[in-house]
Amino acid sequence: MLTKEVLLVLGLLSVFCTFSRALYYPDLDEKEFDRVVDGSKPALVEFYAPWCGHCKNLAPEYERLGEAAKSVKDVIVAQVDADKHSNLAKRFGVQGFPTIKWFDKKVDKASAEDFSGSRTAESLADFIHQKLGRTNVIRLPKEEVHVVELNPENFDKIVLDPTKNVLVEFYAPWCGHCKALKPQYEKVAKTFKDSSDVIIASLDADANRDIAQRFDVSGFPTIKFFPATKKKDVVEYDSGRAAVDFVRFINKHVGTDLDVGGMPSAEASRIKALETPVREFIKAKGRNLEKAKGAVEEVISRDPSLKGQLKRNAKYYLKVMEKYAQNGEEYIVKEIQRLENMLKNEEGNITDSKRANFLRRLHILKSFLSNDTEETYS
C-alpha cells in the first residue's frame, strides 16, 4: 500500500514532468496533433515534405528555433511531415512546402495564420515575440560564424591577397534571397575553415555601394570568386545556392576535395583522368608499372585542373602503384583495413587534418581494388 508521503512525491514528480516537458515536437503526427495543439498554448507549426529543397534549407534554422523553444513554457514549436500525414495538410489548406502556420491560443484552428517572413531562426523567433507581445521569450544560442565580414578597411587586403582564393557574397540586409542563403553560405565557410588558401567572405553591398559598383554588382545576392594569383580573372558564380553547389565550385577552381562539413569525399578525392591508367594497371596485375607511372605523370604535368590538394592526391597514386607492383592486391586490402581500424579505434584522438588524410588515402586505395574485392569494401 502506498503511503501518503510516497503519493505526495509521485504527485510532485508528475507536476514537475508536466511543466518541464519540452515544447518542441519535430515529428508531430495525426494522432498527436490535436492533443499537442489543443489551444492551451499558441503554436508555430511547419508543414514540410522530405523531398522539398526549400524545406531542407529551412531545416537547420527551424531545428535551431525548436531547440531554443525546449526551455520555454509559453509556446509550442512543431513540425509535420505533410507528405506522410497528408490529411493534416489538407485539413489546414497546405498547398506548398514549406508552409508555416501560427495557431493562436484559444482560437479556432481553422483560422491559423500563415507565416510569410524570411526563413531564418531569428525571423521566426521575432514573429513569435510579436504574436506574444513580449521579447526574449525564445533565446537563440549564438552561432559560430566562419564567414569573414568584409568592410572598406579590410576588403582589398583580404580579397586581393595573391595567396588566397576568396569567394565573396555581395548582399543587402533587407534582401530575402540573401537571408535564405545565409545558413547555406555559413556551411560553406565552416567546410573550408581549416583551408589555408580559401576564404569565404561577405560584404554588405548596400552600405558599401562604392565597392559594389567597382565590381559591377547590380543585384543581390551577387557572388564572385577571386582566384589566388589571378585577381583580375574574377569568376561570376552562377550555380546552385545549396552548400554542396558552392563546395563543388570551389573544389573545381581551387583543387580541393572536400564535401560539405570539411572531410574529403570519395568522388572529389579520386582523379577521373587516372581511371583508365589504374584499370589497365590492375588488369596487368601491376606488371606494367613503368608504363602506368608514365601515364599518371603525364596527366599530372598536363592537366590544369590538378592543383593544390588534387595534385597531391594524384602523386599518391604513384606510391600506391609501386606498393601494388611489389605486393599485389594484398597490400591494398591490408592498408585499407589498417586505415579503417585507425579511424575507428582512434575516434576523438586524431586531428581533423589527420582524419582527412586517412580518408583521402582510403578513397584512392579503394579505386585499386578489383571488382570482386571492391564489393567487400564499398
Automatic annotation (TrEMBL):
<comment type="function">
    <text>Participates in various redox reactions through the reversible oxidation of its active center dithiol to a disulfide and catalyzes dithiol-disulfide exchange reactions.</text>
</comment>
<keyword id="KW-0676">Redox-active center</keyword>
<comment type="similarity">
    <text>Belongs to the protein disulfide isomerase family.</text>
</comment>
<feature type="domain" description="Thioredoxin">
    <location>
        <begin position="136"/>
        <end position="255"/>
    </location>
</feature>
<dbReference type="InterPro" id="IPR036356">
    <property type="entry name" value="ERp29_C_sf"/>
</dbReference>
<dbReference type="InterPro" id="IPR036249">
    <property type="entry name" value="Thioredoxin-like_sf"/>
</dbReference>
<feature type="domain" description="Thioredoxin">
    <location>
        <begin position="10"/>
        <end position="133"/>
    </location>
</feature>
<dbReference type="InterPro" id="IPR013766">
    <property type="entry name" value="Thioredoxin_domain"/>
</dbReference>
<dbReference type="InterPro" id="IPR011679">
    <property type="entry name" value="ERp29_C"/>
</dbReference>
<dbReference type="InterPro" id="IPR005788">
    <property type="entry name" value="PDI_thioredoxin-like_dom"/>
</dbReference>
<keyword id="KW-0732">Signal</keyword>
<dbReference type="Pfam" id="PF07749">
    <property type="entry name" value="ERp29"/>
</dbReference>
<dbReference type="InterPro" id="IPR017937">
    <property type="entry name" value="Thioredoxin_CS"/>
</dbReference>
<protein>
    <recommendedName>
        <fullName>protein disulfide-isomerase</fullName>
        <ecNumber>5.3.4.1</ecNumber>
    </recommendedName>
</protein>
<feature type="signal peptide">
    <location>
        <begin position="1"/>
        <end position="22"/>
    </location>
</feature>
<dbReference type="InterPro" id="IPR051063">
    <property type="entry name" value="PDI"/>
</dbReference>
<keyword id="KW-1015">Disulfide bond</keyword>
<keyword id="KW-0413">Isomerase</keyword>
<dbReference type="GO" id="GO:0003756">
    <property type="term" value="F:protein disulfide isomerase activity"/>
</dbReference>
<dbReference type="GO" id="GO:0005783">
    <property type="term" value="C:endoplasmic reticulum"/>
</dbReference>
<dbReference type="Pfam" id="PF00085">
    <property type="entry name" value="Thioredoxin"/>
</dbReference>
<keyword id="KW-0677">Repeat</keyword>
<dbReference type="GO" id="GO:0006457">
    <property type="term" value="P:protein folding"/>
</dbReference>
